[in-house]
Amino acid sequence: MSLPKEYDDLPGTVVFDFDRARQGYHLNMFCMSLMKPENRAAFKANERAYLDRWPMTEAQKQSILKRDWNGMLALGGNIYFTSKIAATDGLSFQQIAAIMTGSSQEEYAQMMLKGGRPVQGNRSKSEWKSRG
Amino acid sequence: MARIVAGVAASHIPAVGAAWDNGKAGEPYWRPVFEGFERSKEWIAKVKPDVCIVVYNDHASAFSLEIIPTFAIGCAAEFPIADEGWGPRPVPPVKGHPELATHIVQSIVLDEFDITVVNKMEVDHGLTVPLTLMFGQPKEWPCPVIPISVNVVVYPVPTGHRCYMLGRAIRKAVESFDKDLRVVIFGTGGMSHQLQGPRAGLINREFDTRFLDNLTRDPQALAKISHFEYLRETGSEGIEMVMWLIMRGALDDEVREVRRFYHVPASNTALGHIILENTRR
Fold first, then answer.
1. Is residue B45 part of a domain?
2. Would you say the C-alpha torsion B139, B140, B142, B146 has a positive or negative sign?
3. Range of the domain at B131
4. Is there a single domain that holds both residue A23 and residue A75?
5. Is the residue at B261 inside a domain?
6. Which of A27, A81, B1, B167 is most solvent-facing, going by the fewest CB within 10 Å?
7. Which pTM value belongs to this model?
8. Mutating which of A30, A81, A100, A123 best tests the B interface, going by the most B Cβ atoms within 10 A?
9. Complex-level ipTM
10. What's B30's domain CATH number?
11. Spatial CA neighbour of A72 closest among A11, A28, A108, A12
């Protein structure tokens, strides 16, 4: 028997719970290593070789190599950890947020300046489905 | 006797720290944010706390996935500034108050809050950005700081009610410390924001406004907000607001709101700030 996860109905959202933390443990611990400048340099010098030091799945490694930010989250990554890859790439939190929403930097920044994404119409997966 | 005289809540957006550190505080995008704290800086300069207790969350800096304490308290004499991937923020190291921190531990554990004691810890933007907003850029922070870290990264995070009750236990602990100290408690993080996935950028001004109102009007109602309501209404990271309830729980039932500031956007986030004073001071 498992706990009910009503938050799985939230559209466009991966709630990082302890199950996902288990799935993404090595992916996130790789991200953690990027807090040290020498590790950032080693990663930049040969990304694939550096990733092979961690017992991640191939899909997790590919998501990192492709900078598939949503893919990383789906495979157990957490945004506070994956943002360390962004920092290594010189990207800000707002830049990766825009990429994850599928909008351009300009569109995303404009949306935020206009007050952000409204909660109306963004509460349930059914609302996104009916929107098409 | 030590006393908690007031509570401060403030968002801890990393981009705010970066804007300050890189000399962008005067730019049109950031100026309103820092102006919003000008009067709060004057307020805290007058209040002159002897100690600040800062409730915050670590963002994969001191705590990775190896150890995930739901509640932890820093009892060290000094907390170095973490390198979060772009070098440590150029701010002074945070000095602790080991004596009061250790006293709080012993009191709240006996009150059934089994907090993790941390004697070696780096602190990240979650703690330092609110200090910058309230104190600017001094050579040294004006008073010792006791960090209280809350897990709001891996779900489930502690409930709002649990946080509120922890605040109560902290207040009782502070009031049983036998030195005369004026303590200000900070709740940080929030308000509505979602940093991840296609729904990133969610902001809910109505929820945030009601939350700010109820900090004075009906904090008990805030303590009843469910996790799912935070996630759905305020975004996946809006749930950080449970940390404000530790601050609120540590204050008197009756408080006076002396300052409020709300601004959208600061990067991906609705920046919220409030100062509440105990009415019997």
1. yes
2. positive
3. 3-272
4. yes
5. yes
6. B1
7. 0.97
8. A100
9. 0.95
10. 3.40.830.10
11. A28
